[in-house]
Amino acid sequence: MPMFRPVKKLFIACCLNLLMLSSAIAADALSFSQATVPQAPPGAQVMAGFMQIANNSDEDIDIIAVSSPQFESVEMHLSKDVDGIARMLPQYKLSIHAGQTLILKPGSYHLMLIKPLKALSDGDTVELNFSLSSEQTQTLQVTVSKSRGASRGMRCGAGKCGSGKCGGN
Mean per-residue pLDDT for 57-79? Predict the structure, then answer.
């Protein structure tokens, strides 16, 4: 029996290396670009997050939750225009197919950053933590930028937007 101990140790070491490698691959499977959090008006209780999320892996990936230490909560939404009013539909996951890119933008998929713990201004950084269905997480640092009126004219049909307009703009 003692001669099998080195083989067993080698087998365990190989399994641990494969596990760490697969975790590293999964964690790097999503890449983020053009991420922005538009600056909200003073006193706004809701901000928005927009970005492009590319799935660089060979497997579909679901984002099942997003959180931020700077906000009471973060929700994933899809805005749909219904009779001239943007309806925000909560999303319980954002699916990104293998090799595809999901675009979060005004009037479509977006993040709602709810109840900032302190006022955030142009140049501040927001930390977003993405929980994936693979039990991996990815963290993204996003800079708050002065709003360019990207979502002007959209009214919040859910009545939850602090400023009366979706995205807090």
Answer: 96
Kindly compute the dihedral angle of the four CA atoms of residues 145, 73, 67, 151, in this order, to the nearest 10 degrees.
Answer: -30
Among 88, 89, 90, smallest CA distance to 151 is for 88
- Quickly list DSSP for 89-121: EEES-EEE-TT-EEEE-TTSEEEEEEEESS---
- Residue 33 makes CB contacts below 8 A (sequence gap 6+) with 51, 52, 54
Pairing of strands 30-38, 46-55: antiparallel
Average pLDDT over residues 117-137: 94
Q: Which pLDDT belongs to residue 127?
A: 98
* pLDDT interval class at 153 (50, 70, 90): very low
pLDDT of the residue at 4: 53
Beta strand 109-116 pairing with 46-55? antiparallel
Quote the CA–CA distance of 143 and 38 in Å, as a whole number: 9
Looking at CATH, the fold of the domain delimited by 30-168 is given as Immunoglobulin-like (2.60.40)
| pTM, to two decimals | 0.72
Which H or E element spans position 7? helix 5-27
